[in-house]
Amino acid sequence: MVHVPRVKLGNQGLEVSRLGFGCGGLSGYYNAPLSHEAGCSIIKEAFNKGITFFDTSDFYGRNHDNEFMVGKALKELPREKVQLATKFGIFKSEETPFGVKGTPEYVRECCEASLKRLDVSYIDLYYQHRVDTTVPIEDTVGELKKLVEEGKIKYIGLSEANADTIKRAHAVHPITALQMEYSLWTREIEEEIIPLCRELGIGIVAYSPLGRGFFAGKAVAETLPSESFLAQFPRFSGENLERNKIFYKRLDVLASNHACIPAQLALAWLLHQGNDIIPIPGTTKVRNLENNIGSLAVELTDEELKEISDAVPVNEVAGTRETGIASKYSWKFATTPSK
Q1: Using one digit for the tens of pLDDT, what is the confidence trace for 149-180?
Q2: Is this prediction's pTM over 0.85?
Q3: Residue 43, Cβ neighbours under 10 Å: how many?
Q4: Angle at the Cα of 313 (from 308 to 318), degrees rounded to 5?
Q5: Do 331 and 160 touch, CB atoms closer than 8 A?
Q6: Which residue among 29, 30, 60, 126 is the active-site one?
Q7: pLDDT tens digits, one per residue of 98-126
Q8: Which of 7, 18, 276, 11 is nearest to 155 (CA)?
Protein backbone atom coordinates (compact mmCIF):
# COMPACT_ATOMS: atom_id res chain seq x y z
CA MET A 1 0.00 0.00 0.00
CA VAL A 2 1.27 3.49 -0.89
CA HIS A 3 1.98 5.61 2.19
CA VAL A 4 0.09 8.92 2.31
CA PRO A 5 2.39 11.47 4.02
CA ARG A 6 1.23 14.47 6.03
CA VAL A 7 2.12 18.03 5.10
CA LYS A 8 1.45 21.53 6.37
CA LEU A 9 -1.38 23.41 4.66
CA GLY A 10 -0.50 27.07 4.97
CA ASN A 11 1.69 28.35 7.77
CA GLN A 12 -0.97 28.67 10.50
CA GLY A 13 -0.47 25.17 11.90
CA LEU A 14 -2.92 22.98 9.97
CA GLU A 15 -1.54 19.58 8.92
CA VAL A 16 -3.37 17.43 6.37
CA SER A 17 -2.80 14.30 4.32
CA ARG A 18 -0.83 14.94 1.11
CA LEU A 19 -3.94 13.96 -0.84
CA GLY A 20 -7.42 15.00 0.27
CA PHE A 21 -10.85 13.70 -0.64
CA GLY A 22 -13.58 15.79 -2.26
CA CYS A 23 -16.89 14.50 -0.89
CA GLY A 24 -19.33 16.43 -3.11
CA GLY A 25 -19.60 13.76 -5.79
CA LEU A 26 -20.89 11.23 -3.25
CA SER A 27 -24.17 13.16 -3.16
CA GLY A 28 -24.56 13.28 -6.93
CA TYR A 29 -23.14 15.81 -9.34
CA TYR A 30 -21.35 13.89 -12.05
CA ASN A 31 -23.10 10.58 -11.28
CA ALA A 32 -26.16 9.35 -9.39
CA PRO A 33 -25.96 10.07 -5.63
CA LEU A 34 -24.87 7.29 -3.30
CA SER A 35 -26.84 6.17 -0.27
CA HIS A 36 -25.47 7.45 3.03
CA GLU A 37 -24.32 3.94 3.83
CA ALA A 38 -22.36 3.64 0.58
CA GLY A 39 -20.95 7.16 0.88
CA CYS A 40 -19.82 6.59 4.45
CA SER A 41 -18.16 3.35 3.35
CA ILE A 42 -16.06 5.23 0.75
CA ILE A 43 -15.07 7.91 3.28
CA LYS A 44 -14.02 5.27 5.82
CA GLU A 45 -12.08 3.41 3.12
CA ALA A 46 -10.22 6.61 2.25
CA PHE A 47 -9.39 7.19 5.92
CA ASN A 48 -8.16 3.63 6.38
CA LYS A 49 -5.85 4.11 3.39
CA GLY A 50 -4.30 7.25 4.90
CA ILE A 51 -6.45 10.16 3.67
CA THR A 52 -7.50 12.35 6.60
CA PHE A 53 -8.51 15.61 4.85
CA PHE A 54 -12.17 15.61 3.78
CA ASP A 55 -13.86 18.45 1.91
CA THR A 56 -17.60 19.15 1.78
CA SER A 57 -19.95 22.15 1.54
CA ASP A 58 -23.42 23.20 2.62
CA PHE A 59 -24.16 23.48 -1.12
CA TYR A 60 -23.46 19.84 -2.00
CA GLY A 61 -26.38 17.51 -2.44
CA ARG A 62 -30.10 18.11 -2.18
CA ASN A 63 -31.09 19.70 1.15
CA HIS A 64 -27.46 19.78 2.34
CA ASP A 65 -27.25 16.00 1.93
CA ASN A 66 -23.46 15.85 1.74
CA GLU A 67 -22.84 17.41 5.15
CA PHE A 68 -25.28 14.97 6.74
CA MET A 69 -23.46 12.07 5.05
CA VAL A 70 -20.01 13.27 6.08
CA GLY A 71 -21.25 13.81 9.62
CA LYS A 72 -22.42 10.20 9.78
CA ALA A 73 -19.04 8.96 8.53
CA LEU A 74 -17.21 11.04 11.14
CA LYS A 75 -19.09 9.23 13.89
CA GLU A 76 -17.19 6.10 12.90
CA LEU A 77 -13.78 7.78 12.70
CA PRO A 78 -11.47 9.32 15.35
CA ARG A 79 -12.47 12.99 15.08
CA GLU A 80 -9.09 14.28 16.29
CA LYS A 81 -7.36 12.55 13.36
CA VAL A 82 -9.64 14.02 10.68
CA GLN A 83 -9.23 17.44 9.07
CA LEU A 84 -12.75 18.51 8.15
CA ALA A 85 -13.34 21.29 5.65
CA THR A 86 -16.71 22.72 4.67
CA LYS A 87 -17.91 25.88 2.98
CA PHE A 88 -20.62 28.52 2.99
CA GLY A 89 -21.66 31.24 0.59
CA ILE A 90 -23.50 29.60 -2.31
CA PHE A 91 -27.23 29.12 -2.03
CA LYS A 92 -30.17 27.97 -4.15
CA SER A 93 -33.62 29.51 -4.12
CA GLU A 94 -36.79 29.59 -6.18
CA GLU A 95 -35.46 32.74 -7.84
CA THR A 96 -31.94 31.49 -8.60
CA PRO A 97 -30.20 28.11 -8.83
CA PHE A 98 -26.90 29.77 -7.94
CA GLY A 99 -26.69 32.77 -5.61
CA VAL A 100 -23.82 34.06 -3.46
CA LYS A 101 -24.02 35.68 -0.03
CA GLY A 102 -21.30 36.79 2.39
CA THR A 103 -22.86 39.07 4.99
CA PRO A 104 -21.66 38.61 8.59
CA GLU A 105 -25.13 37.43 9.65
CA TYR A 106 -25.16 34.81 6.89
CA VAL A 107 -21.64 33.62 7.76
CA ARG A 108 -22.71 32.88 11.34
CA GLU A 109 -26.04 31.37 10.33
CA CYS A 110 -24.33 28.99 7.90
CA CYS A 111 -21.61 27.98 10.33
CA GLU A 112 -24.09 27.14 13.08
CA ALA A 113 -26.18 25.11 10.60
CA SER A 114 -23.15 23.21 9.30
CA LEU A 115 -22.02 22.36 12.83
CA LYS A 116 -25.45 20.85 13.49
CA ARG A 117 -25.64 18.90 10.23
CA LEU A 118 -22.11 17.56 10.64
CA ASP A 119 -22.80 17.00 14.35
CA VAL A 120 -19.38 18.30 15.39
CA SER A 121 -18.23 20.90 17.89
CA TYR A 122 -15.79 22.58 15.50
CA ILE A 123 -14.82 22.74 11.82
CA ASP A 124 -11.11 22.53 11.03
CA LEU A 125 -11.16 24.62 7.86
CA TYR A 126 -14.10 26.85 6.94
CA TYR A 127 -14.14 28.38 3.46
CA GLN A 128 -16.09 31.14 1.82
CA HIS A 129 -17.22 29.07 -1.18
CA ARG A 130 -17.58 32.02 -3.55
CA VAL A 131 -16.89 35.70 -2.99
CA ASP A 132 -19.90 37.98 -2.54
CA THR A 133 -18.99 41.00 -4.65
CA THR A 134 -21.58 43.17 -2.87
CA VAL A 135 -20.06 42.79 0.61
CA PRO A 136 -16.61 44.08 1.66
CA ILE A 137 -14.37 41.02 2.23
CA GLU A 138 -13.31 42.66 5.50
CA ASP A 139 -16.87 42.22 6.84
CA THR A 140 -17.05 38.56 5.82
CA VAL A 141 -13.63 37.65 7.24
CA GLY A 142 -14.29 39.75 10.33
CA GLU A 143 -17.14 37.43 11.24
CA LEU A 144 -15.05 34.36 10.41
CA LYS A 145 -12.40 35.71 12.79
CA LYS A 146 -15.00 35.83 15.56
CA LEU A 147 -15.90 32.19 14.87
CA VAL A 148 -12.22 31.29 15.24
CA GLU A 149 -12.07 33.14 18.55
CA GLU A 150 -15.17 31.25 19.72
CA GLY A 151 -13.60 27.89 18.81
CA LYS A 152 -16.28 27.02 16.25
CA ILE A 153 -13.76 26.97 13.41
CA LYS A 154 -9.99 26.55 13.56
CA TYR A 155 -8.80 27.94 10.25
CA ILE A 156 -10.19 30.24 7.56
CA GLY A 157 -10.20 29.54 3.83
CA LEU A 158 -11.31 31.26 0.64
CA SER A 159 -12.37 29.76 -2.68
CA GLU A 160 -12.27 31.39 -6.11
CA ALA A 161 -10.86 34.63 -4.70
CA ASN A 162 -8.67 37.01 -6.70
CA ALA A 163 -5.38 38.59 -5.59
CA ASP A 164 -6.92 41.79 -4.21
CA THR A 165 -9.51 39.87 -2.20
CA ILE A 166 -6.88 37.49 -0.81
CA LYS A 167 -4.64 40.34 0.35
CA ARG A 168 -7.48 42.27 1.97
CA ALA A 169 -8.86 39.16 3.67
CA HIS A 170 -5.43 38.12 4.93
CA ALA A 171 -4.98 41.55 6.52
CA VAL A 172 -8.06 40.95 8.71
CA HIS A 173 -7.13 37.40 9.77
CA PRO A 174 -4.53 35.00 8.35
CA ILE A 175 -5.99 32.88 5.57
CA THR A 176 -4.83 29.26 5.82
CA ALA A 177 -5.91 27.92 2.43
CA LEU A 178 -7.23 29.00 -0.93
CA GLN A 179 -9.31 26.45 -2.84
CA MET A 180 -9.09 26.84 -6.60
CA GLU A 181 -9.69 24.74 -9.66
CA TYR A 182 -6.26 23.54 -10.76
CA SER A 183 -5.40 20.74 -13.15
CA LEU A 184 -3.48 20.05 -16.33
CA TRP A 185 -6.07 21.91 -18.40
CA THR A 186 -6.85 24.69 -15.89
CA ARG A 187 -3.68 26.55 -14.95
CA GLU A 188 -4.59 30.25 -14.87
CA ILE A 189 -3.70 30.57 -11.18
CA GLU A 190 -0.01 29.83 -11.83
CA GLU A 191 0.83 33.37 -12.95
CA GLU A 192 -0.35 35.50 -10.02
CA ILE A 193 -2.40 33.56 -7.46
CA ILE A 194 0.05 30.79 -6.53
CA PRO A 195 3.04 33.18 -6.12
CA LEU A 196 0.91 35.47 -3.93
CA CYS A 197 -0.23 32.57 -1.75
CA ARG A 198 3.37 31.42 -1.31
CA GLU A 199 4.40 34.94 -0.35
CA LEU A 200 1.63 35.08 2.30
CA GLY A 201 2.02 31.49 3.54
CA ILE A 202 -1.36 30.32 2.22
CA GLY A 203 -1.79 26.73 1.06
CA ILE A 204 -3.51 25.82 -2.21
CA VAL A 205 -6.27 23.20 -2.27
CA ALA A 206 -6.80 22.04 -5.85
CA TYR A 207 -10.37 21.08 -6.64
CA SER A 208 -11.26 19.18 -9.83
CA PRO A 209 -7.60 18.09 -10.08
CA LEU A 210 -8.52 15.57 -12.77
CA GLY A 211 -10.39 18.13 -14.87
CA ARG A 212 -13.78 17.05 -13.46
CA GLY A 213 -12.83 13.47 -14.23
CA PHE A 214 -11.72 14.12 -17.83
CA PHE A 215 -8.19 12.84 -17.19
CA ALA A 216 -9.67 9.79 -15.50
CA GLY A 217 -11.46 9.00 -18.75
CA LYS A 218 -14.88 10.59 -18.25
CA ALA A 219 -16.52 11.20 -21.63
CA VAL A 220 -13.45 9.73 -23.35
CA ALA A 221 -12.77 6.18 -22.17
CA GLU A 222 -16.25 5.89 -20.69
CA THR A 223 -19.60 7.37 -21.69
CA LEU A 224 -21.15 10.12 -19.58
CA PRO A 225 -24.23 8.96 -17.65
CA SER A 226 -27.38 10.59 -19.00
CA GLU A 227 -28.04 12.29 -15.65
CA SER A 228 -24.52 13.72 -15.37
CA PHE A 229 -24.27 17.46 -14.89
CA LEU A 230 -20.96 17.37 -16.78
CA ALA A 231 -22.69 17.65 -20.15
CA GLN A 232 -23.47 21.27 -19.23
CA PHE A 233 -19.78 22.14 -19.00
CA PRO A 234 -18.45 23.61 -22.27
CA ARG A 235 -15.36 21.38 -22.33
CA PHE A 236 -17.53 18.26 -22.23
CA SER A 237 -19.98 19.17 -24.97
CA GLY A 238 -20.13 18.81 -28.75
CA GLU A 239 -17.20 19.87 -30.84
CA ASN A 240 -15.24 21.04 -27.79
CA LEU A 241 -15.21 17.54 -26.36
CA GLU A 242 -14.06 16.02 -29.64
CA ARG A 243 -11.18 18.50 -29.83
CA ASN A 244 -10.21 17.92 -26.19
CA LYS A 245 -10.05 14.14 -26.50
CA ILE A 246 -6.59 14.46 -28.05
CA PHE A 247 -5.22 15.63 -24.69
CA TYR A 248 -6.41 12.50 -22.93
CA LYS A 249 -4.88 10.34 -25.67
CA ARG A 250 -1.54 12.13 -25.35
CA LEU A 251 -1.56 11.67 -21.59
CA ASP A 252 -2.44 8.01 -22.03
CA VAL A 253 0.70 7.51 -24.13
CA LEU A 254 2.88 9.27 -21.56
CA ALA A 255 1.31 7.31 -18.70
CA SER A 256 2.28 4.02 -20.32
CA ASN A 257 5.92 5.14 -20.11
CA HIS A 258 5.54 5.39 -16.32
CA ALA A 259 3.59 2.13 -15.89
CA CYS A 260 0.59 4.10 -14.60
CA ILE A 261 -2.78 5.31 -15.87
CA PRO A 262 -3.62 8.82 -17.15
CA ALA A 263 -5.40 9.81 -13.91
CA GLN A 264 -2.33 8.93 -11.86
CA LEU A 265 -0.02 10.87 -14.17
CA ALA A 266 -2.30 13.93 -14.07
CA LEU A 267 -2.38 13.84 -10.26
CA ALA A 268 1.36 13.19 -10.04
CA TRP A 269 1.99 16.25 -12.22
CA LEU A 270 -0.09 18.33 -9.82
CA LEU A 271 1.58 16.89 -6.72
CA HIS A 272 4.97 17.82 -8.20
CA GLN A 273 3.94 21.49 -8.45
CA GLY A 274 4.75 21.87 -4.74
CA ASN A 275 4.07 20.40 -1.30
CA ASP A 276 1.82 23.39 -0.59
CA ILE A 277 -0.65 22.22 -3.25
CA ILE A 278 -3.13 19.60 -2.02
CA PRO A 279 -5.33 17.93 -4.65
CA ILE A 280 -8.76 16.72 -3.45
CA PRO A 281 -10.01 14.24 -6.05
CA GLY A 282 -13.32 12.62 -5.29
CA THR A 283 -14.73 9.31 -6.40
CA THR A 284 -17.55 6.86 -5.73
CA LYS A 285 -15.40 3.79 -6.47
CA VAL A 286 -12.77 2.13 -4.27
CA ARG A 287 -10.73 1.22 -7.37
CA ASN A 288 -10.44 4.89 -8.34
CA LEU A 289 -9.56 5.80 -4.76
CA GLU A 290 -6.69 3.31 -4.82
CA ASN A 291 -5.53 4.63 -8.18
CA ASN A 292 -5.55 8.20 -6.89
CA ILE A 293 -3.45 7.25 -3.88
CA GLY A 294 -1.11 5.39 -6.23
CA SER A 295 -0.27 8.72 -7.88
CA LEU A 296 1.85 9.54 -4.83
CA ALA A 297 4.33 6.87 -5.91
CA VAL A 298 4.82 8.28 -9.42
CA GLU A 299 8.14 10.14 -9.61
CA LEU A 300 8.74 12.73 -12.32
CA THR A 301 11.82 14.67 -13.41
CA ASP A 302 11.70 18.32 -14.49
CA GLU A 303 11.96 17.19 -18.11
CA GLU A 304 9.04 14.79 -17.69
CA LEU A 305 6.95 17.47 -16.01
CA LYS A 306 7.53 19.77 -18.97
CA GLU A 307 6.65 16.96 -21.38
CA ILE A 308 3.33 16.44 -19.56
CA SER A 309 2.59 20.19 -19.48
CA ASP A 310 3.35 20.46 -23.19
CA ALA A 311 0.99 17.57 -23.95
CA VAL A 312 -1.93 19.72 -22.73
CA PRO A 313 -1.31 23.29 -23.97
CA VAL A 314 -3.88 25.32 -22.05
CA ASN A 315 -4.31 27.79 -24.92
CA GLU A 316 -5.53 24.91 -27.10
CA VAL A 317 -8.15 23.56 -24.69
CA ALA A 318 -11.61 24.00 -26.22
CA GLY A 319 -14.31 25.57 -24.04
CA THR A 320 -14.35 27.53 -20.80
CA ARG A 321 -13.89 25.70 -17.49
CA GLU A 322 -17.22 26.74 -15.91
CA THR A 323 -20.86 26.67 -16.88
CA GLY A 324 -22.34 30.05 -17.79
CA ILE A 325 -24.13 30.77 -14.52
CA ALA A 326 -21.14 29.87 -12.34
CA SER A 327 -18.50 31.57 -14.46
CA LYS A 328 -19.49 35.08 -13.35
CA TYR A 329 -18.54 34.08 -9.79
CA SER A 330 -15.05 32.90 -10.72
CA TRP A 331 -11.97 34.49 -9.16
CA LYS A 332 -11.43 36.85 -12.08
CA PHE A 333 -14.59 38.72 -11.12
CA ALA A 334 -14.29 38.41 -7.33
CA THR A 335 -13.61 42.05 -6.39
CA THR A 336 -15.60 43.25 -3.38
CA PRO A 337 -16.46 46.86 -2.41
CA SER A 338 -13.96 48.88 -0.43
CA LYS A 339 -14.52 48.92 3.31
Answers
A1: 999 999 999 999 999 999 999 999 999 999 99
A2: yes
A3: 24
A4: 130
A5: yes
A6: 60
A7: 789 999 999 999 999 999 999 999 999 99
A8: 11
